[in-house]
Amino acid sequence: MPTTVVNTIGTGGDYTLPQAWEDDCPANLVTADEIWRGEVLNQEFSGAGNRLTISGQTTDETRYVDLTAQAGASFADHADKLTNPLRYNSAVGAAITQSSSYATAVIITTPYTRISRLQIGATGGNQTAGLSTTDTIIDQCIVQGNDRPVRMGATGGRVF
Amino acid sequence: MAELLIRTADKPTSGSVYQDVQRLGAGDVVCIVEDGHQWSKKERENPDWQIVVLKGVPVAKLSAVLAPDPGFGDAEAMKVNRVLRRRAFKIDVAALSNVRVRDDLAAPDKAEATAISLVLPAPAVRDPAILGTDKRVIG
């Protein structure tokens, strides 16, 4: 039974930036027998260029990287969740966005990664994307981009 | 004004070149933030990381150190070129232990030039499945 290692991400959390959380992940989650879970606090991570890359970890179906919003920090937890417009709005929950052309806010190449309850955006011009992913489970996320919100590899992923 | 979080140690190898190029290694910049950032205890105390404060250097001047090889993250491009690197540039971490370099990085009038001089192109990675890189493999 894998151990779930939970860390918070954001100001005052275990890591202040999602990329630092990702880089501290064991290279091999299978031998570590861990699920590496990051819980994003209710804040926006913004800037020019790619904000988070999840790649290089050795994973399997039961030991994987899992990025989500902390309980109460997601747009899905917001008091007006039933009436809020379903579009990127960092005022209603944890969010990651980037503003450069030819860039992607979140890149995931590690198989079996799960990402949930987050807002991901890209506001740049040409070729911007919110999320680029292969073999990822995307659950309850808002992904928005000027050019294309999600770029998914041929091996695909699952979107709920 | 910038602060860099830099890896000072390689991650363990996986045995696959294709997977290892997707991991950050020694000299790779994990992230750049505006100076005055309140790093967490885990970030400050991680033995594999070093935080470098660059007085007077705008974040935008160094954003290239976060750039991957063009096409990294694009599943189609990564099928064609399986050794696309996660970072195209590295920081010369050996130089960071030099006292004069550290002094220059802390001096607002020298920090930018010194920081830029520490940026090196990441070494090219050969694809072992391409003819010529591994004599046992043809094609």
Quick recap:
With 160 residues, chain A is mainly β. Helix content of chain A is 6%, strand content 38%.
How would you characterize this protein structure?
The model of chain A has no long low-confidence stretch (mean pLDDT 89). Chain A has one domain. Helices cover 6% and strands 38% of the residues of chain A. In chain A, the strands form three sheets. A six-stranded parallel β-sheet of chain A has the order 1-2-5-8-11-14. A four-stranded parallel β-sheet of chain A has the order 3-6-9-12, with no helix packed on it. Chain A contains two helices and 14 strands, in the order βααβββββββββββββ. With 160 residues, chain A is mainly beta. Chain B has 139 residues and is α+β, with helices and mostly antiparallel strands. Chain B has one domain. In chain B, the strands form two sheets. Chain B has a three-stranded antiparallel β-sheet with strand order 2-1-3. Chain B has a two-stranded antiparallel sheet with strand order 4-5. In chain B, α5 packs across α6. Chain B starts with a strand and ends in an 18-residue tail after the last strand. The interface between A and B is medium-sized, with 34 and 35 residues.
Q: What is the total tally of β strands of chain A?
A: 14
**Overall body shape of chain B:** elongated
The count of domains of chain B is 1
Rough outline of chain A: globular
Q: Biggest β-sheet of chain A, characterized?
A: 6 strands, parallel
Radius of gyration of chain A: 15 Å
Task: State the main characteristics.
A: 160 residues, mainly beta, six-stranded parallel beta sheet, four-stranded parallel beta sheet, 2 helices, B: 139 residues, alpha+beta, three-stranded antiparallel beta sheet, two-stranded antiparallel sheet, 5 strands
